[in-house]
Amino acid sequence: MALEAVTFDHWNTLVVEKGELPGRRLEAWLGIFEDAGFTVEREELSAVFKDAWDRYVTAWTANEQYHAAEAAEQCLEGLGFAVPDDLKPALIDAFTHVGRGIDFDLTEGVAECLTDLKDAGVRLGIICDVGFTPSNVLREHLIRRGLLPLFDHWSFSDEVGCYKPAPEIFEHALDGLGGVEPSRAAHVGDLRRTDIAGALAMGMVAVRYTGVFDDDSSPDPEADHVVGDMRALPGVLGF
Question: Rounded to two decimals, what is the model's pTM?
Answer without folding.
Answer: 0.95
